[in-house]
Amino acid sequence: MTAYLFDPPAVTTVPVEGRAEVFPVRRILCVGRNYAAHRREMGGDDRDPPFFFAKPADAIVPPGHDAAYPPKTSNLHHEIELVVALKGGGKDVPVEKALDLVFGYAVGVDMTRRDLQNAAKDKGQPWDASKGFDASAPISAIKAWTGPAPQGRIALSVNGQVKQDATVADMIWAVDEIIAEASKLWTLAPGDLIYTGTPEGVGPLVHGDTVTGEVEGVGALSFKVV
Ligand code: MN
Fold first, then answer.
1. How far apart are CA 193 and CA 191, in angstroms?
2. 145, 104 in Cβ contact below 8 A?
3. Less Cβ around it within 10 Å: N or C end of the chain?
């Protein structure tokens, strides 16, 4: 039996709607610039394809929990995103088999220290501190799902005011393409979550804000920035 020097870290989990079992999180991959209008508001070139970055699994903020305002930023941004939860894995997954890997979907927010991200872009430095910080991945319960991926409305409000309001069908890479592309770069496995990118309308959050988000047919999330 393995003797640990200290207690190994707890497994991060996300509840599953209507189930007693919870979803154990392995990795969190994220897609950048997957909606054309958001790519434009970020100053991107219309020909640049989406790309991936990552967050640590313990960045998850489970439903019913507040999100702590992170240190070292004065420009924390919300990014509402459809989240794909994988029950299968592999590498070089063909696009026509990609949806077979999906356990379900959730609503997530890719919290971003925009000021640190802009500084990193300017200096050609990594994005980790701007994207992969503590409590940077609020998420709803996961909804089990089979068949075609969600296509409907994706929206986020701050203190009841709508800030982001778009359609998942407008994603540049659809869910099956995201999974296929990711599997060319990493070996995917059950427990992986993929935040699929945010539409236009990203903006700042401050202490005390209440954030609500939804993806049509998938669910809703609500948390407070504390
Ligand atoms: Mn994002």
1. 6
2. yes
3. N
Q: Tell me, in angstroms, the distance from the centre of ligand 1 to residue 196's CA.
A: 7
Q: Which helix (H) or strand (E) holds 56?
A: none
How far is ligand 1, taken at its centre, from the CA of residue 4, in Å?
36
Fold type of domain 13-224 = Fumarylacetoacetate hydrolase; domain 2 (3.90.850)
Give the domain ranges of the chain: 13-224
Per-residue pLDDT of the chain (226 residues; tens, 9 = 90+): 899 999 999 999 999 999 999 999 999 999 999 999 988 998 888 888 999 999 999 999 999 999 999 999 999 999 999 999 999 999 999 999 999 999 999 999 999 999 999 999 999 999 999 999 999 999 999 999 999 999 999 999 999 999 999 999 999 999 999 999 999 999 999 999 999 999 999 999 999 999 999 999 999 999 999 9
Residues ≥6 apart with Cβ < 8 Å to 202 = 38, 41, 77, 78, 79, 112, 114, 163, 164
Exposure letters 5-15 (e unless 16+ CB within 10 A, then b): eeeeeeebebb
Ligand 1 center to 110 CA (angstroms): 5
- What are the structure tokens assigned to 208, written together? 């005390």
Interval between CA 195 and ligand 1 midpoint (Å): 7
C-alpha 38 to ligand 1 mean position (Å) = 10
Q: How far apart are the first and last CA of the chain?
A: 42
User: How many angstroms is it from 2 CA to the middle of ligand 1?
Assistant: 38
